[in-house]
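Data card: per-record layout.
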Amino acid sequence: MKIKDCLPFLKHPDSDAVPELIIKDEFLVEKNADKKYPITNKMIDFQGSVKSGDNDVKKGRLFKLNTIFSKYLDFMILTSIFAGGGVSFMNVKKKTKQWIDQVTKDKTLFLEPDDKRLLSYIGPDNCLTVEDLASRNVTPLTEDYPNLNASHEQLPIRSSSFQNIISFFVIEHVKNPRHHFSEIERILKPGGYIILSGPGDVYPSHRVPYNYFNIIRYGYHEMFKENNLELVEEYFPAKSWMSILYLCYTTMVRNSCYNKNQFTKLLQLIIFGISLVVSPFFNLAALLLDMIMPFDKRIYSLYMALLRKPSNSDSQKEKNPSG
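The structure for this 323-residue chain is written out next.
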């Protein structure tokens, strides 16, 4: 979404008042007020947390190679059959697309759109994207910047302004998940839908130290009830054996212990190369085991839910069931 098209949806993060915002000299400013937010590479920075350069990258060719890999290839491989448990992320993409086709018929708020391919299903002009770059270890490429850099616990979005919201693996990276749920409920129009993706009960830590929670389905259900959100459908992209495979893959291939020095980084590169060859076979084995073994919804790495906010007509029907 172009910056000028974002303005009707925006407010200050710490106020519910509706401001009159304009763009002036590479800043988003409010008329007759001192508040202003910088605009960097077509992104409105509500946090001022954007850093330039890769100052924290360790020295050495392998570490530089790792940085390039993280920015360009990591997510693509992780969500494919060439990563152990990668089928689960393929299922996330497939289900998200199905729900997008099912419910998104208006402007959409997309929180943490890591999988840029999903944006093509909605259309960039129909989607306002928000990321919290302060909770990321690797800053995205400038061409991948979201429309807004803002906290997911204090979103600078006006109340009841979006018919559709996608919360894509946000919940584990906010310090208070309840605040995040109350925020997206506030922003959602009555009768609107939320497409939620998040960790299950055995999802490994990632983006440390900005990973605070894993939530089981009953915890999700409680937050749905607290915000009067109707659970339309829930989905488990990874059943037990696929979840176990992803844990093993993360331990063997994506272990942070490899970041100690050049030798351990070389060891990781060798193990990663082997994993590209064997992962398709392990994914197939995990799929077959999950088909054979009953799934009791107790061991799962990922969780998805399609939620609906009751409309005003729903409330009237409850008060007057005979009418």
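Known properties of this structure: The chain has one domain: 43-319. The first helix runs from residue 3 to 6.

See the next section for split statistics.
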